[in-house]
Specification:
This protein has 296 residues and is of the alpha/beta class. It has 2 domains: 173 residues, 3-Layer(aba) Sandwich (Rossmann fold); 66 residues, Sandwich (Immunoglobulin-like). 26% of the residues lie in helices and 35% in strands. It is built from 5 helices and 17 strands. The longest helix has 24 residues. 26% of the residues are buried.
Length: 296
């Protein structure tokens, strides 16, 4: 009898383990709001989109919030996404811009994109939390800036935030309903962002209607304005780099810039600010390795 029970237990345990581990993992989701984008924006042009940064100041960039009420198919007390929050926001923004009629070029695509003096959209996730409880509470805030690449001036910036709460209903939450709640809330933030951006952007967006046009410009105009490179690495990594008053992203970074003198600032939470004036020379790469000092 004892041996029979042990054999049954041996068969059952792997199945139970598979069920638990399969449901206890992070939330896998794709940005899919329940309502499509409205009519495309008339005269929408081309925008270079840089990856948005996570400015929430937390250790795990996938973390959303606490779980205190049951969720079908999800176990544990903390809610994580499968991908980083900032990556989800960037991908969702690209989809919304495309649906709105913009031609979106990935800023990380390579030097060809950096050569064009168009408009660059970049930003930071200021808040992104979801707590699951008797009432679910969500808060999303995204700051965006539109930069004129030729003048390096910020021609538009806006921080859009949405806070919402809901009762999940008698059926409770599941992975699917949570993913949909996140998508619908994020869509409100991004669509308000795009509406504000569109009102400040020339119809042509100062850039080519396709990546093929970028290639044509590269071959037709050999005398490029971008002359040198600035390569910066920091300890700790993922520090915020600004040149003048313009935020460029998280380190490590390699930038193609016109030859000249630049004032750089590096910031990281818990560390002292670093400032230095650097020279970018024509046809050369200026490399910097910066170690920030921890603030007690």
């Amino acid at each position: 009898m004892y041996g029979t029970r042990m054999r049954h237990l041996i068969y059952i345990l792997p199945i139970l383990l598979l069920i638990v581990t399969g449901c206890a993992g992070p939330l896998k989701m794709e940005y899919a709001p329940s309502t499509p984008h409205e009519t495309p924006i008339k005269g929408a042009g081309t925008i270079f989109l840089a990856p948005y940064a996570d400015g929430r100041g937390i250790d795990d960039p996938r973390y959303l919030g606490a779980i205190s009420s049951p969720v079908s198919g999800l176990y544990g007390k903390r809610l994580f996404l499968e991908k980083e929050v900032a990556a989800l926001v960037t991908a969702a923004l690209k989809k919304e811009l495309t649906d709105a009629g913009f031609h979106v070029i990935d800023w990380t695509a390579g030097p060809k994109a950096h050569d064009w003096k168009g408009y660059l959209l970049r930003g930071e996730v200021k808040e992104y939390t979801l707590t699951i409880g008797p009432r679910d509470e969500i808060a999303i805030e995204v700051e965006s800036k539109l930069v004129d690449r030729k003048s390096r001036e910020v021609i538009w910036e806006k921080s859009v935030s949405v806070k919402d709460d809901r009762y999940a209903g008698v059926m409770g939450n599941s992975r699917r309903t949570i993913a949909l709640y996140i998508s619908n809330t994020l869509s409100r933030v991004l669509r308000e962002t795009i509406a504000g951006l569109a009102s400040h952007l020339p119809s042509s967006a100062g850039a080519p209607p396709s990546e093929e046009r970028v290639e044509e410009r590269d071959s037709a105009v050999p005398d490029r304005e971008v002359k040198g490179r600035l390569a910066i690495s920091t300890e700790p990594a993922r520090s915020k780099l600004s040149i003048g008053n313009v935020y460029y992203g998280l380190t490590p970074l390699t930038l193609e810039l016109e030859a000249g003198i630049y004032d750089i600032t590096v910031r990281h939470k818990g560390y002292g600010e670093y400032r230095e004036r650097v020279s970018v020379r024509e046809g050369a790469t200026t490399e910097m390795e910066i170690e920030l000092e921890r603030v007690e």
